[in-house]
Design brief:
- The protein contains 35 helices and 11 strands.
- The strands form 5 sheets. The chain has a 3-stranded antiparallel sheet.
- The chain is mainly α.
- Strand 6 and strand 7 form a beta hairpin.
- Helix content is 54%, strand content 5%.
Amino acid sequence: MTDHSHVSRKNVGDDRIALCPIFGCEFMKRVKPLKLGFFGFGKYPKCKKHHVPLVYINEYIGEFVDGALACLFDKAGLPSSELISMVSSKYPDELQYFIHGWVYCITTGRGAPIISQYLDSISKIYLKKLNRKQAKALKKGALGKNTGKYQSLKEGLKIIANEYARVLKHLRVHSEVLVNVKSLKSLSSGLRHNLNKWQNKIIKLYLSKNPFENAEMKNLTEIKRYYDQILNVSTCRCLIGMNTAIKKIKLTAFDRFSAYEEFYSEGITNKFKRSDLENLKRVNNNKNENVRVLVVEEKVLPRNIKENEENINPEIRLIEELINLIYKFEEEIVGFSNLAEFNIILDLKNGKTLRRFRDKITASNLSKILGISLDTAKLWLRILEDPNKNSINIKIRRITFKKVCEHLKKFCDIDEFYKSVSEVLEVYRNIRYEVEFLDKLLTIFNNYIKGGGGKSWLSTILQKSRAYIFDLETRRGDGGKGGPEHYAKYFNLLTNIHLIDERRVELFNGVSINNLKAECRAFIFEEMKKRNMMTDLCKSKYSRRIVRTENKELFDIVIFSLVALTKIERASSWNTEFVYDYTNLSRLISKKNHRDFLTGKFREGYILAKTEGRRLIEEIRKGFFKAPKACHDAIYRIKVHINYPRWRKYEKHFIDLRRMQNKEILDLNLGLDIYGRGFIEDARPFISKNGEIIGDRYVFRTTRHHLDEDQKHYLIFANSLNISFKIILLPTESHWNLHANNKEFNKNKIILNARMKHLYKLIHSNSIAKKKSTQIIKSEFKNETITVEGQEITLWNKFPDDIIEEWIIRWKARKILSDKDFYEKFYPKFYKKHYEPLLKDIELYRIKDPRCQRPEFWYWYFGIYLKRNIYPKPITFDS
């Protein structure tokens, strides 16, 4: 999920529109600056329904559309192999109609109407939130004197329109390219009956047990499978003419698109293409289908083009294979050329085929597809007609080959064709040309960015002089033995690559700028290893904390630190061309200001010492608020690098989340030790091995225990729909005893989860009569039961009466005391020594004070954690 800036009236420069970040919620508010910078109420506006901080609409709407598009066009939305097999075996003549109909119904079944309604709603509400003067200025277009005053409002409205247009563009491509409306046909009653049985079976399967409490669903992939099946049921119901809404399973806009936004951000969604539809048609082994495929394959190759032979020179082989692929994918190329966006007009016979005379492609069409001159195309076709073509000495100039490579990128949306062509071109390139470092780098860029070119073009992309790339090539050195300057060339190049603004380049569909940067990092790291500039980690007690033997972690730390420091300096000086240098970073980390400090680390295979890592973190923190995201990414890479190895199995923020989550879970159990039948002790002074009390240091001896052992999970609840705990708080001793009892570990896991559920119900209940509260709660503790392994047991068995009475006292106190008063009474040392310093640090973060101790954590905590850590609705308690 994208990190958002929390709305604050303290730092907003002019009127802006903010809304609730919960998908589907239409709460919106016009945020005005405080008078004189400090007078006014509601300094940090929140949603009245969900009580979460608002976010600016221009930061939010793109994230919503990303999640929505990932949901609509996910590859998992295509019919499953089970359905394809059923249709192909029972109704083989209707397979093609079934696939076309299913694809046609995908967008409706997966919630396209919801997107349209939601975007319509927020655009209308956006306009309603404007005052008359603002609305009038925006409608006129020419803002005049108020250009700066209303620019943010105009930008927000423009972003809504652009994102809406993006949705409509994808829907148009889906309806015009992937779906042939003329091929749609109603299905037979027998097939519709079988599809109805299938969707009823899926609904019963997923209603028979709660999917989120299912032990098998431990990761996002399993949860995604659940959502895919339910949405596929909606698609199936749309196909057979039923209402897509399922009464027993209600998926709100929040459930649908927030889940898929998370799947999209984790990289487990894939957009389906035309080639995926063709693969569906070839899945079954029906005889008629096999005959049809064989006929097509036989028709692909003309008589004069035979299979490649070993004695054919590379140029003849290249020409033959390219033309063979054009014949093979002729139908896809013709269909693609009919799109309005495709600016190449092919000469088609009857509007259907590229071939004219003797069933062969014309030179005109060949030149347009390959991007070569008409004379070159005629020459290539004439050579292939020659019976002695293998003896002809033909040369393909390097510039012609490059033109072909660049021109064929226009067909990248025809996935299988472009993939096959790329393989053929790569084989020829490896035979004829020795690919240099920069050529490989250019190839990576050309695979991501449209309108690619050569080294001068790459210099322009990096916003450097035209000679920058050529200078890099001549000064790289041999084998990495030329001194620290050559290391600097590589790292400075990577820094410039990571500073590329996605808005300045036009990317191919289905790729992201982050993928480009990651591929460049991996490529340059391997290049430096090849040149003996990167040595594997030496064996030492310090290197044991690193999982990989190669020094890739330090390599990434250097790059992300350079990016963070560069953005900090650019924000401070407004010098948009400034780039923090590798040698300056070495001097910054080195205690003795050595320019080759980092170079020595890479050559000798050393990692960063903890003191060196902390020194670098402190330097980055000084300018954190000028580039928060870049600083956060750099600091947490350093933290993972220098922390103890045992923390690597947890989510990287989990160690910093400890104190906040301790307080959060104490609010949910009021300090009750649900395993040890006592209460969690207050924080106490830290005592060294020598028995000395160390200063003002206090320790809170508790452990956050993952009930399902999924240590990458960092939220207390499994999800916001059901009360199911993933993390509980136990005293350290109780945690040890729980793990020591291996025989009943699974049984205890169920019991502990049930106890926390029961406490959650009691704490959040507002219907317990005050006069009878003691009697009611005692009765609850005495009578609550649970079924474990087929046996009904008392949930709070063997809990002492005095412990239950003490918990009731705390329950009553929590109802009447403020948060501070409650903790000063029951956990005074924890509150004063652990939690109160965090509150002070939060306030420093809110006002962007550089004295803030952990800004990188608060950036993640407010931007990610609080948005995902949504408490489930408590169960109604009947008194």
